[in-house]
Design goal:
- The structure is a homodimer.
- Chain A has eight helices and two strands.
- By secondary structure, chain A is mainly alpha-helical.
- Chain A has a two-stranded antiparallel sheet with strand order 1-2.
DNA sequence: GTACATTTGTTGCAGATGCAACTAATAATT
DNA sequence: AATTATTAGTTGCATCTGCAACAAATGTAC
């Protein structure tokens, strides 16, 4: 590939990602959902199924354990979840959503879908699917170097 | 598009972007280039042409002025650039690279290209070009809502 | 079964981010 | 010319990030 096009790839990816995240933050705020985009990513996983240890969360988020610790601190402080100590392995906690935490799911997902629809506006289903595969390919390339 | 596929789009984009940024941080460190990925993005613009006011930098980076202020603080502290007060408009500074700042260009760009090559490994030029257009399309969608 | 290693989560540190409030300087209105 | 925007840059606050060092619990090896 032309080396002059290789240089700005990071910029293009960074711009697309930044705009997407900002748009999500905006949508969540508009909808009155008290979550930042990063908190949303954590909650998204918890809504799919509670009781993951924090290290699994970190892995799934591509973040380190320390970052997960602190996002959970905030979410616990704000009453969206609780850490429950695990009897089987006392190093770990089970994360359990509160009623409040569970209640935000629908609205938050609607915000997320609105962002995606803005992002993909004007693309056919086929073009969007090709774009998805492109991103998945990149992820795979980084995960198996 | 199938609503179940609309939900994880942010996650896919986030993963690809995160892995790319982490890989760049790693490459820069390996090559002994004293820049974080965010600092690299700023320097990239300055290498193309000095003397931009900070607000233009912010616009180009999709960041707010405050963020640019603080990245420049760090880069100035580390001797990569200097703020020169502008006689014509005393609100602004001209950012000027130091010799040290200019000297990092080649190595840093090589790191960036290595990251891109990893990202795009296994894709044809045509597929990569389609991926670029996909990302550009998303950027355009967010910029003209 | 004791010593060593690994794993889980936390904290300290330096770097980023957006938003809102602020100062100083320039532009626009009247 | 004087008042009123508007613009460029900075600072405070809350959030988020990775890395490295650490404690406590669990696993492994001898």
């Amino acid at each position: 590939m032309n080396p002059f096009q290789l240089i700005p790839f990071g910029k293009v990816m960074g711009s697309a990602h930044t705009l997407l995240v900002k748009n999500l933050a905006h949508q969540l705020k508009q909808a009155g959902v008290p979550l930042t985009p990063d908190q949303y990513r954590v909650m998204m996983i918890l809504w799919e199924g509670d009781s993951l240890p924090q290290c699994k969360l970190a892995e799934s988020l591509e973040r380190d354990r320390a970052s997960v610790t602190r996002i959970l601190d905030t979410l616990e402080r704000d009453g969206l979840l609780v850490r429950v100590s695990n009897a089987a392995d006392r190093r770990m906690f089970s994360i359990e959503l509160t009623e409040l935490g569970r209640s935000l799911r629908l609205k938050a997902i609607q915000c997320s879908m609105a962002v995606t629809q803005t992002a993909l506006r004007g693309l056919t289903e086929e073009e969007a699917a090709i774009g998805f595969r492109f991103l998945h390919h990149i992820i795979k390339n980084f995960k198996q170097p």
